[in-house]
Write a structure and sequence with these properties.
Blueprint (H helix, E strand, L loop, with lengths): L1 E9 L6 H13 L4 E3 L4 E4 L2 H16 L4 E9 L7 H13 L2
Antiparallel strand pairs: 1-3, 1-4, 2-3
Length: 97
C-alpha cells in the first residue's frame, strides 16, 4: 500500500518547516520507501508498518504543537510493490514523445 499524508501543526505560527521536518524524519528513519514533495509525504509498505509510521510522525509533531491536522490518502493494492516508482514511470512513459 501507498499512503500519502500531510501533517500540519496548528497554533505555532506560519513557519512550520521545522515541525514538518520532525514528521519527515520519522518517515525517513523508518526504512520504508518514501518520497516527500511540497504537499505530501508518501510512504510504501504493509498496512501495519505504514500506519505505525504515520502515527509516529503525527506524535513527533504533537510533542511540540498544541494541535495537529492530518490529511491522509491511501492506495491499497495487494501484491504491488515499488508503486512509488512504477506509477511515476508509467506516466512518464506516456508523456515521452
Amino acid at each position: 500500500m501507498i499512503v500519502a499524508f500531510s501533517v500540519t501543526p496548528l497554533g505555532v505560527g506560519e513557519d512550520v518547516g521545522e515541525y514538518v521536518a520532525d514528521a519527515v524524519r520519522v518517515v525517513r528513519e523508518s526504512g520504508l520507501p518514501n518520497r516527500t514533495d511540497a504537499m505530501f509525504t508518501s510512504v510504501e509498505g504493509e498496512w501495519d508498518e505504514v500506519m505505525d509510521v504515520v502515527r509516529r510522525a503525527v506524535a513527533a509533531v504533537e510533542r511540540r504543537a498544541p494541535r495537529v491536522s492530518l490529511v491522509l490518502k491511501a492506495d491499497l493494492r495487494p501484491g504491488v510493490t515499488d508503486g512509488l516508482t512504477s506509477k511515476v514511470e508509467t506516466v512518464e512513459r506516456h508523456l515521452a514523445p
